[in-house]
């Protein structure tokens, strides 16, 4: 089970984030993923740091092979056909209709390889009033209601990591895996469709349930108030978070940590419902207390009282965290051209196994020559230089 998808061949026509993440997740499970890239510069994510091997690219492309094909040319299309004839999965995140214009519509693909699982990732779906609009993360989280549950309406500022991009890639991998399981029964491939709008909505089901059941329109404070989640600054300027949930024992233990048993008797804070209603007042009360001690002092008390807590770690602090190091989430490898790279292991273990060390992300066209020989593709076009005047 180290390689749950061993023997599965995936062709990825993916750029930037959603399709590459889907492809990487399948590679993490042991699939062979061939990334087809444009002859001029490849995946645009490669160039974000001024080279063809940016951190943005390496974050989403480990464990893959790379070949450059010009899908506008007859040779490139013929080569893609040969790859797809033997493939199990095709992933693409073009705008609707692009693949069909290239000569690889759904009917063509089904005839070419009836067992092929065809995964199409779009911004808003294959049709509808927004289908042909460009879509990126900030657009999807805004349209899908996530932004309204995260932003301060008085000072709106988009922040943090990508959400819609990441979850869309994950939902795509989930759909592909389901289609592969069904293919084992029927022998037939399937068309998997995922779009960033729907996945953004699906990622936040609680807010829609609150609205349709209770008429409540959630905002950036709704969930944190209900879950009793807080972040505080200590005397030394360091931050930590607690999550008290609706379980009374955590609130009672936290009041003990604060040495404020009187808070338990305060009618504003006596029940989960009243603490939700008076969230900001409770937050202000506790924030003043927390500022009287260092974070180390609070951590000793919190751990002894079994309160759910954690430091607000920066990225470097995460990598040095004792639990993270124990889990061996990160590992180092050496790329023959780039040098030392730090990669993540897949975050899933099967029968206690995480799988073999991941191969580093590919250089642009790194495996082109070997793949052309293996699949009988056309020779790579010879680049000619225009003589200088």
TrEMBL record:
Transmembrane segments: none annotated. The keyword Transit peptide does not apply. It holds the Pfam family CoA_transf_3. Gene3D superfamilies: Crotonobetainyl-coa:carnitine coa-transferase, domain 1, formyl-coa transferase, domain 3. InterPro entries: CoA-transferase_III_domain, CoA-Trfase_fam_III, CoA-Trfase_III_dom3_sf, CoA-Trfase_III_dom_1_sf. Residues 350-389 are annotated as: Disordered. Keywords: Transferase. Signal peptide: none annotated. Residues 350-375 have a biased composition (Basic and acidic residues). The keyword Transferase applies. GO terms for molecular function: CoA-transferase activity. This is CoA transferase. It comes from Caldimonas thermodepolymerans.
């Amino acid at each position: 089970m180290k390689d749950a998808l061993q023997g599965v061949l995936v062709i990825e026509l993916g750029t930037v984030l959603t399709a590459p993440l889907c492809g990487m997740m399948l590679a993490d499970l042991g699939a062979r993923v061939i990334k087809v890239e444009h002859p001029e510069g490849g995946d645009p994510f490669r160039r974000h740091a001024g080279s063809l091997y940016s951190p943005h690219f390496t974050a989403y492309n480990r464990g893959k092979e790379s070949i450059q094909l010009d899908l506008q040319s007859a040779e490139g299309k013929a080569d893609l056909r040969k790859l797809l004839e033997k493939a199990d999965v095709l992933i693409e995140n073009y705008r609707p209709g692009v693949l069909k214009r290239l000569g690889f519509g759904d009917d063509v693909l089904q005839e070419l390889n009836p067992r092929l699982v065809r995964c199409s990732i779009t911004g808003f779906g294959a049709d509808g009033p927004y289908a042909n609009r460009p879509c990126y993360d900030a657009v999807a989280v805004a349209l899908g209601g996530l932004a309204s549950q995260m932003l301060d309406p008085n000072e709106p500022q988009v922040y943090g990591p990508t959400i819609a991009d990441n979850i869309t890639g994950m939902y795509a991998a989930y759909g592909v895996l389901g289609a592969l399981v069904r293919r084992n029964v029927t022998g037939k491939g399937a068309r998997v469709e995922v779009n960033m709008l729907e996945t953004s909505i699906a990622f936040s089901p609680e807010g829609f349930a609150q609205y349709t059941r209770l008429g409540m329109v959630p905002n950036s404070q709704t969930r944190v108030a209900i879950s009793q989640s807080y972040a505080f600054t200590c005397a030394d300027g360091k931050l930590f978070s607690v999550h008290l949930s609706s379980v009374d024992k955590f609130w009672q233990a936290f009041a003990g940590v604060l040495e404020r048993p009187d808070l338990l008797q305060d009618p504003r804070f006596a029940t989960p419902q009243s603490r939700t209603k008076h969230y900001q007042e409770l937050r202000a009360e506790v924030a003043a207390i927390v500022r009287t001690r260092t974070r180390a002092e609070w951590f000793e008390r919190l751990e002894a009282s079994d309160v759910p807590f954690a430091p607000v770690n920066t990225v470097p602090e995460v990598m040095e965290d004792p639990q993270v190091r124990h889990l061996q989430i990160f590992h180092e490898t050496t790329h023959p051209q780039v040098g030392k790279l730090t990669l993540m292991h897949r975050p899933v273990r099967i029968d206690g196994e995480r799988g073999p060390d991941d191969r580093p992300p590919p250089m642009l066209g790194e495996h082109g020559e070997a793949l052309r020989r293996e699949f009988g593709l056309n020779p790579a076009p010879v680049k000619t230089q225009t003589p200088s005047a």
